[in-house]
Structures are given as structure tokens and as C-alpha cells.
Amino acid sequence: MGRVPAAVTLARSSRLAVVTGLSGSGKGTVLRALEDMGFYTVDNLPVDLMMPFADSGPLADSAVRAALVVDIRSRQGLARFPPVYREIRTRVPAVLMFLEAGDAALQRRFSETRRPHPVGGASVAECIAAERALMAPIRALADIELDTTDFNVHDLRRRVIDVFRGDSEASGLRVTVGSFGFKYGAPVDGDVVLDVRFLPNPHYEPTLRDLTGRTPEIARFLESYPETHEFLDHVMGLLEFVVPRYASEGKSYISIYLGCTGGRHRSVYLAEEVAKRLSEGGRPARVQHRDIDKEG
């Protein structure tokens, strides 16, 4: 990747991110991305409350990172932003991100949303020009300037993750591996859903029927069939391809479900095994068994 720019190093070590810029440039998308990364977020905080927030708000907890959006909606307070921000930086590690976009892109975005420009004026073009002038002193303080003209929301989210956390593929994507029984209905929140009913069913073995896929007996039964191992190898190959791409798209979580008939034996064993292999590969996974207690 090469040397990390100084501004990005500052962003990754900051405890307070102040997001500002032109209306329609994507500040809301940035704030939501930071919130999904674990930041405590506040939109449209008045300039006069920035210092109290930095001194006694969530940042009083050394484990918390926070992000604020301060923009043209602060009106007269904007004139006080530069000295307030300079003082905050003497108290807490902070970074200022300024979002920009070309006039045509901003006009198109306002046309699509049909929302009024917060500056107010005869035309959106005049409002944009006025806002640029009003925001110029704040822009001069920015540690990071980001032009979102050619970004969609997914592009912007990926860029924010890369700037503030780095290596989006190794991000904090939350992985859940679950089991279920098709007789109780497929899960509605599954991103990847796999049917394992083709494997031999322990239910038909009297000594195994009352056990679950968490027991050594069920594991030995299923592992005695080569197709179990072949299936797991194929599944892990699929997930090695899919999961990093969910992360790079900016998703916060992915749910992987394996289903058998009753959700007690085969799917439980396989969900446990898949989660274990993901964790051993550096991708910690949470396990949940939806229907494990509905039979037996």
C-alpha cells in the first residue's frame, strides 16, 4: 500500500472527527459510516456546544471515539468555529474532514432530493456559491479534503472506512454463522443460505436422534462421510471469496445460515465448524442455533 499519508495517520489516531463541508456533499453518509464503525455521532451540533462536548461529553470516556457534523446550519456560529476548533485540538486528538463536490453534482443532488438549500436564495447555484464563500475559513483548517463529485454512497463509505480504520477487508465486519430447520421456515435475514439436507441424517439413528450437532457423537457420524469434508471445503472457499467483498462494500455485518430438516443435527454441526474455521482464519464469527431446541 505504501506510506500512509500524515492526514490519514492523524484520522486513525483521532478521538474526535469533525465532519463539515458543502451541503449535499455527503456529510450524512460519512457520519453513518463512522457510527457503524463505533463512533458516538452527533449531527448539526452548534459551534458553541463543541467545547463542552469535547470536555465533558462521551469523550470523557477514554475508550470512546466521537464524530460531529458542523456545517452551514450553524449560521452565525460559523464565525466562531476556527478558534473553537483550534482550542479543541489542544485538548483532544481531533481531525477535521471537509467534503466538497462540483457545482453540477451538488445541483443534481438537490434536484433529486427536492430539498431546499439551507443557505436560502433565488437559485441553488447562488446558494452553493454563497456557501462556498462562507465555508472558506473552515476549509482552510481542514486536515482532510474529500471531493465526492464522482462518488456514490458506497464509494464514500469505503473511503471513510479506509481513512479512519484502514484495510477495509480487515474491518470490523460482524460475522454470524447460524443453523436452522427448513421445517420451521428459512431465515429472512440470511445473506448466504446453504441447504445441507443432502448429507446423511443422524435423526434416523436411534442412538443419535436425541443428541445435537454440538456433540462428539454427531461430529463423528457426519465426519465419517467424505461428502461432509468436501462440502466444508467448498463452503470455506466460497466464504473466502464472499466475506472480504462484503467488507469492502462497507457492510457492517454478514449472516451465513446452514439449514437441515429440523435444525438440530447437520446444520448445527456445520455452523459450528464453519465458525471455527473462520475464526482460525482471522475472521471471528458468532454462532447462533435458531431451532436446536425445537426437537428431541
What CATH architecture label of the largest domain applies? 3-Layer(aba) Sandwich
**CATH class annotation of the largest domain:** Alpha Beta
Sum up the overall morphology in one term.
elongated
**Beta strand count:** 9
Mean pLDDT across all amino acids: 89
Q: Helix proportion of residues, in percent?
A: 40-55%
Please describe the biggest sheet, giving its number of strands, its sense, and whether it closes into a barrel: 5 strands, parallel
N-C termini distance: 54 Å
Strand content: 15-25%
H/E series, N to C? HEHEHEHEHHEHEEHHEHE
Radius of gyration of CA atoms, rounded to a whole number: 25 Å
The structure class reads alpha/beta
Q: How many distinct domains?
A: 2
Kindly report the name of the CATH homologous superfamily of the largest domain. Answer: P-loop containing nucleotide triphosphate hydrolases
Helical run tally: 10
Low-confidence stretches: none
Task: Write up what this structure looks like.
This protein has 296 residues and is of the alpha/beta class. It has two domains: 6-166, Rossmann fold (3-Layer(aba) Sandwich); 174-289, no CATH class. The chain contains ten helices and nine strands. It has helices at 6-13, 27-36, 50-56, 81-89, 103-113, 124-139, 153-164, 216-223, 226-248, 266-280; strands at 16-21, 40-43, 66-69, 94-100, 144-147, 174-181, 192-195, 253-260, 285-289. A five-stranded parallel beta sheet has the order 2-3-1-4-5, sandwiched between helices. A four-stranded parallel beta sheet has the order 7-8-6-9. Helix 2 crosses helix 7 (153-164). The longest helix is centred in the C-terminal third of the chain and has 23 residues, at 226-248. The termini are far apart. The mean pLDDT is 89.
